[in-house]
Amino acid sequence: MSKKEWPLWEVFIRSKQGLSHKHAGSLRAADAEMAINNARDVYTRRSEGVSIWVVESANVVASDPSEAGPLFEPANSKAYRHPTFYDVPDGVSHM
Amino acid sequence: MKDLNINELDRKFQEKIDNEIKIEPKDYMPEAYRKTLIRQISQHAHSEIVGQLPEGNWVTRAPNLRRKAVLLAKIQDEAGHGLYLYSAVETLGADREETIDDLHSGKAKYSSIFNYPSLTWADMGMIGWLVDGAAIMNQVPLCRCSYGPYARAMVRVCKEESFHQRQGYEIVTKLATGTPEQKEMAQESLNRWWWPALMMFGPSDADSKHTAQSMKWKIKRHTNDELRQQFVDVTVPQAELIGLKVPDPDLKWNEETGHYEFGEINWNEFWQVVEGYGPCNKERVDARRKAKEDGAWVREAANAYAEKRAKRKAS
């Protein structure tokens, strides 16, 4: 018996036109076409999707969670990027 | 991360748990947490997969086309639930094939309820109503489990399970309000499934060796006995509504506590079934093993086809 396992795929589903694809989960399949077919059966049995993307998990490059602090720190110190940072006079509207 | 020692990492980990911050696959986690999750999620996955077998037994004998289509859809859901869960196990670094082989070698457990036979059509109703009902009671709190992939899988599973329970109760209701023979069939089935359903919540709190740690890690949110009580409280009125009698002479409503009191579970039977001596343990595992062996050529052919296509594309 062949010991070769089918590769792992990450599944992304667009739930309706106008929305972006969202990660739904993963599954095993021999190739991309089979991954799409399996994803249809595993993740859209109740019409949860109108489009499916599959990506071999080995091809996903991820940031390191233990480096999350330094990686995202630059954004944390820049509160002025948010509208609530600014004082505006009471009574001003449409802003 | 390298300059933190294990104690410090463990402390930070528990702090995240206490603050309801989910743990994701690549985050630091103590080995015991990882092992507990691998054990629990793989048992859960195996239960979904083995759970197809008692129902598969009735597909060709469903009383009409509607019931047959529903039963097939439910069985397909169970397969899907198993797949979500095997994927969640893989995120913990467990090997999927080895996990499945552990089921086949008898090393891994699954819910002992599936070691009882499905003898009559009423059992299809009883499994949906009681077994899926008990499963929902267990699984709803797991949607808030501290481990992200398990919690997300449970959200999907719970959404799908509620159809399972309702279709089961519909079958039982139809029988319970039908001819005397049909009612008798429903009652006889309830008599067989009631106690095993209560056992689904696991050993009593006093004998549950994993509960305290699992609750500290927020893998579990309620103890086995709390969930069992909740199940009895909601299920007894459902039985009464359709004129069925719960087979427990000690069952009585306690006005003061607002809960039902119920009789002692036969723990001897429970442990026997867990240890592999239930009515169908051997049959279930044999069926899974046969399915894997019989399907080997399909998996190999799919690999060969994928390789051939990849080669053709490259040239």
Could you explain how this protein is built, in words?
The complex is a heterodimer of chains A (95) and B (315). Chain A has 95 residues and is α+β, with helices and mostly antiparallel strands. Chain A has a domain at 1-60: Phenylacetic acid degradation B (Ubiquitin-like (UB roll), Roll), CATH 3.10.20. Chain A is built from two helices and three strands; from the N terminus they run E-E-H-E-H. Chain A has helices at 32-43, 68-76, and strands at 8-14, 22-28, 51-56. A three-stranded antiparallel β-sheet of chain A has the order 2-1-3, covered by helices on one side. The longest helix of chain A is centred in the middle third of the chain and has 12 residues, at 32-43. Chain B has a two-stranded antiparallel sheet with strand order 1-2. In chain B, strand 1 (252-254) and strand 2 (259-261) form a beta hairpin. In chain B, 67% of the residues lie in helices and 2% in strands. Chain B is built from 13 helices and two strands; from the N terminus they run H-H-H-H-H-H-H-H-H-H-E-E-H-H-H. The longest helix of chain B has 29 residues, at 148-176. Chain B is mostly helical and 315 residues long. The mean pLDDT of chain B is 95. In chain B, helix 6 (122-142) packs parallel to helix 8. Chain B has helices spanning 6-18, 31-50, 52-56, 65-90, 96-105, 122-142, 148-176, 180-199, 211-216, 224-241, 267-277, 281-294, 296-314, and strands at 252-254, 259-261. Chain A binds chain B through residues 1-2, 4-6, 8, 25-28, 30-31, 34, 41-42, 45-46, 62, 64-66, and chain B through 1, 24, 26-28, 73, 76-77, 80, 83-84, 87, 90, 96-97, 152-153, 156, 160, 296, 299-300, 302-303, 305-306, 309-310.
